[in-house]
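Take a careful look at the protein record below. Let me know whether the structure tokens fit the sequence:
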Amino acid sequence: MKIVYFDVENYEEQFLKENNEGKYEYYLDSNPLNDLTSLKDEYKDADIISVFTTSRVNKTVLERFSNLKLIALRSVGFNHIDTDYCREHNIAVVNSPNYGNITVAEFALALLLNVCRKVTVSYMDYKEGKVRPENLMGMELSGKTAGIVGLGAIGSAFARIAHGLDMKILAFDKFEKEEMKQKYNVTYTDFDTLLRESDFISIHAPLTKDNYHMFDKAAFEKMKKTAIIVNTGRGELIDSTALYEALITKQIAGAGLDVLEKEETITDFDYIIGLNRLDKNTLEQTIINSQLFKLDNAIITPHTAFNSIEAINRILKTTMSNIAEFVSGNIQNCVN
């Protein structure tokens, strides 16, 4: 059984070596897997590949593999995988659920607090010796209304934290959890009501064909001018152009973003050295992202909400368990 792990970070190497040595023929590659990079010959007959969200595994990529049977994701989300192609060609796709519920929820709170209390702005001003208290006045969280979009495992963890901070909680989700209503006073509501009544909105929904750009110009116009939006879900849930306009016109007060549309173009070396590889939409989005970085009322981090010691260990253990189960004839955590 040949396995190729892409997107491998230094802190993952030791674990992967220890858990593959003597069991499988394996390769560790620090590069993401996408249609911009060449595929090494020794990878092409792999039975299993494992990737993180920085890879973009589309049809063009998948066609290069002659013997692929399983894609083991080191993530919960799978919108970066062409699951339709995989289904048609009998390639199983399995994910790593529930690894970062607390980790991501805590990071979402950190982003919210940062924007509300202007932590980064205060630090930069102080560092540069130009502290003006009137410019650093923030907002308390206690007593405010938190709107949570997507009350799955991560959203539920965020709700528990918000409840502990004495916040009123509104939730928008297809499925209502009685426990969340009873224990944390969560009120389920429709999307428009959540937009109108929330002081803070935290996004924890997966990206689907139905919710692409659910936060568009019309959505921002319904929000409070004092509202702050936090996104640790997927960048494509927000229309970045509409967000940029909302921020510069003060339609909303601020944003804390750990994900962006087309975020791969910011750090992926293949895009950096080959701008001619960007289509019109991707190039426009890259420009908008660069403008978002310049705003004082936006905090942007590099898709790192998942990145805690505890969460990484859970990801790697689940990945190896998924692979072992597949090799033994079982499939767990299948998403296609």
User: Anything to note?
Assistant: The chain has a mean pLDDT of 93. The two ends are 22 Å apart (CA to CA). The chain has two domains: 2-99+309-327, 101-300.
